[in-house]
Amino acid sequence: MGMSQTKEEFLYIGIDGGGSKCRATIYTHDYCILGTGVAGRANPLHGLAQTFQSIEDSTQLALSDAGLKPDDSKRLIAGLGLAGVNVPRLYQDIAKWQHPFSSMYLTTDLHTACIGAHQGQEGAVIITGTGSCGYARVGDKELLLGGHGFALGDKGSGAWLGLKASEAALLDLDGFGEKTILTERLMQHFEVNNALGIVENLAGQSSSTYAKLARIVFECAQIKDGVALDIVREGATYISELARKLFEIDPPRFSMIGGLAEPLAPWLAEDVLAKLAPSLQPPEWGAAFFAQQQYAKATV
Predict the structure, then answer these.
(1) With left for phi above 0 and alpha for psi between -120 and 50, is residue 217 left, alpha or beta?
(2) DSSP annotation of 37
(3) Strand runs labelled E in 242-294
(4) Quick one: which of 69, 72, 42 has its CA closest to 58?
(5) Where are the transmembrane segments (predicted)?
(6) What is the pLDDT, as a whole number, of residue 289?
(7) 9 or 287: whose pLDDT is higher?
C-alpha cells in the first residue's frame, strides 16, 4: 500500500467477535460508517478456523455493503475485539494469522466494548446478556471480573436466570419447592405439561437456550411472584457488587451493555444506578478506534 497515502485515505474496520455472531463495520478516519456485515460466531475459545472464517465473511459483507471490491480488504486497518485473547496462546495463534488486511491490531472483546461505550475515554462496563462479566480500564490499571462462562459463573446473566427458574420449577413440580408461576410459564414455553417435558427440552442444552427464559423470569418478578423476585434480586445484587468492585479503580464513566442491561437496571442498588451512564458507541466502533490508535503509534 506504501506510506504515501494520506491519513484521509485510510479506512478502518472494527470487528466484534462474539459467541453468537461476528459484526464488522468499516469506518473512514473520522468515523463515518461506510458498511457493515454480520456473520457467524467468532470466539477463538471455540475454534480458530471458525473464527477466521467468520471474520473473513463479515469483512466481505461489510465491503460489499460499502460498495467496495473484495480485495479492498488490503486497504483496511483492522481492529479486532475477540473473546479469550487474554490467554497468551490464543493471542499468538491469532497474531500469526495470514489476515486479509493492511494491518491488524488485536485486543479483547471487553476492551473494545469498553472503548466504544465511552467513545474512546476510559471507564468501566458490565456486560449482561447470555453471560455476564465486568471490565474496567483506567490508566495502566485493568480489571476483569466474572465472565467464567456457563454454568460455572455468569451469575446475573440471562443463562443464569433461566437455569435458576428451571431449577425452581422442577422443585415445585416434585413437591419440594415453593409454588411459583414460573412452573406454568416454563411449561407453556416448552409446550409440555410435566417435569420430564422441561428436562427433555433443557438437558445438554447450551447457555443460549437457558437465556431465552430470562424474559419469563422478569415478567414473573414484575407480577410479584416470590420465587422469581428472589432470583432477580439475587442476580441484581451480584451485578451491583460487581459494579462496586469496578468502581474501586475510579473509572470516570460506567455503562452496562448487552440484552439484559435494560431489564436489570431497575433492580440494581441505588448507588450503582446513580453512576450508570448510557453506552455511546458499539464495540465495533471501539475496535476501529483501538486500531486507529495502535496504527498511529506504530507509524510514528
Answers:
(1) alpha
(2) E
(3) 254-257
(4) 42
(5) none
(6) 98
(7) 287
DSSP 62-120: HHHHTT--GGGGGGEEEEEEETTTTSHHHHHHHHTS--SSSEEEEEEHHHHHHHHHTTT
Q: What are the tens digits of pLDDT across the range 92-132?
A: 999 999 999 999 999 999 999 999 999 999 999 999 998 99
Overall pTM surpassing 0.85 (yes/no):
yes
C-alpha angle 168-145-41 in degrees, rounded to nearest 5: 75
Reading the block at residue 266, the C-alpha cell is 431497575
What pLDDT, on the 0 to 100 scale, is given for residue 43?
87
Contact 22/55 with Cβ under 8 angstroms?
yes
CB neighbour burial string for 6-33, b if at least 16 within 10 angstroms, e if fewer: eeeebbbbbbbbbbeebbbbbbeeebeb
Measured distance CA(43)–CA(243) in Å, rounded = 25
Contact by Cβ (8 Å): 45, 32: no
Region at 295 (left for phi over 0; alpha for psi -120 to 50; beta for the rest): alpha
DSSP assignments along 135-170, one per residue = EEEETTEEEEEE---TTTS-TTSHHHHHHHHHHHHH
Question: For residue 279, what is the DSSP state?
Answer: -
Question: Of the candidates 9, 44, 24, which has an alpha carbon nearest to the alpha carbon of residue 285?
Answer: 24
Please give the mean pLDDT across all residues of the chain.
Answer: 94
Q: Are 41 and 18 spatial neighbours (Cβ–Cβ below 8 Å)?
A: yes
* Least confident piece of the model among 1-10, 96-105, 206-215, 269-278: 1-10
Check if the beta carbon of residue 44 is closer than 8 Å to that of residue 94. Answer: yes
Q: How far apart are the first and last CA of the chain?
A: 17
For 3-12, 175-184, 268-277, 287-296, which range has the lowest pLDDT when averaged over its residues? Answer: 3-12
- CA separation for the pair 124, 249 (Å, rounded): 9
8 A C-beta contact, residue 131 and residue 20: no
